[in-house]
Amino acid sequence: MSTARCVWRTTLLLGLFTGLHVPVTNALSAQMLGLSEATIEDINAAFDSGTLTSERLVELYLARIQAYDQEGPRLNAVLWLNDQALETARILDEERRMSGPRSPLHGIPVALKDNIDTADMPTTAGSLLLAGSLPPDDAFIVEKLRSAGAIILAKLNMSELASGVTMSSVGGFIRNPHDIERSPAGSSGGTGAAIAAAFAQLGIGTDTGGSVRGPTTANGIAGLKPTHGLLSRDGIVPLALSFDMAGPMARHVYDVAAMLGVMTGIDPDDVATSKSSNRFETDYTQFLDVSALGDARIGIAREFLGQDTEVDWIIEASLDAMRAKGATVVDVHFPQWLLDVKGDWYTTIRWREFRAQIPEYLATIGREYPKTLSEMVERSMKIMSLTPEGGTPNPTRWSLLVQEEESGTLDDHEYIAMKNYGLPMAQSIVAGLMDAQDLDVIVYPTSPTRPSLVNGGSGGGVSATNIANLTGFPDLIVPAGFTSDQLPVGISFLGRPFSEPRLLGLGYAFEQATKVRRNPRTTPPLAGAEIRR
Description:
This protein is of the alpha/beta class. The chain has 16 helices and 15 strands.
């Protein structure tokens, strides 16, 4: 076990929860909700009624981490715990009593992917090459969360440097709580697994080519890749800034909307946020409407069906559910040439930008860490066995470092052509598809096949997820159902730039009409963990 996995300073406190491993079997009354069923709205109602405190809520989540990450199925989702979380919760409880809540997130535990800077916990992007790195300050979105009263509870395992297999050299492989032989998908696999298993109320992932959305669907939760520029990328380890975007992940669409509004705003340290001027909201919950599907025009991209019969069945059933609520569903077709080239277009930008941009991040951390991609390659070649601290070589990701180093520069003709002409072309094509049939959204199976085995690669089939990155358009994922082997399937709602209000309204209406989310079978409720409104 790595040093990271040994930093459990709350162990003594968790002794209070002896006996909590018994699943709850009694039916919940109208006033009682299981922890995983409770939305932020429910929790705030419990705070207001005096039946719950933030301190108690943190204790409940720490108990689940102890039961299911350190013990039980050992999901391996959590890298670091905030040893000040309980004390912060006590302070926030007192502040609530004295002056009221700062925001709907006051006293709410949030878990972050380990490529998002926190000044009080390591940020390693899951890489032994950055082991122990403490950034100089919080990422912009972390500052916003803390200012809103949210509690940063944990940092989560991930695909190393946000790419490659769903493991890190710091923490090893992550497991899917619905089936521990399956992958939670990447690169935000730790966030997906942790939120599905109810290790925190809210989670943040990052998405460059599908890294919020793959883990969202594979773990049966809700999540959003926002419009490029809606959230600041300051303090996030870059993969490719043309595509990178942090995204909220939660068990409920309501919680995704509540968290999103807290994090928006113009950041002078991230020029991309200027695109959101006069277009961002600070409260997206106001757009949640159970009747939103009634006047909706939905396009279905059938190019991404036909790869798994059970996934297809669930998507068709989802379309029927939308029609039953009044939506008009029409077929749309992406040009075959775009489907043929989108992977090459993506890597033309992605690999070169990582090579150019990772040194900018490395310059912000200690001198003992590598400062260029070339130096990262050199150091990775010297780690050929388990380290004394429990680190694990990650040859798959480290081999990709070599390809990224050899990919080219930001002033070569391929990159310039793709940046200046390819990406605008992709934006024009997708917007044109929507305009031609007056569509609110285009829907598709987020993953066209069920989750792969833990060490079985990324799964088969062609996904549409990187289209949202090539265009910068927003993409909301909502649970759609389960296969016969109890694996979750998600459906994507791809919209126009800064159409998050409409996406969240439609996603919420679909969620409330279908109510298909279920607790993972390996991480059932713990006794005594209900929320009384």
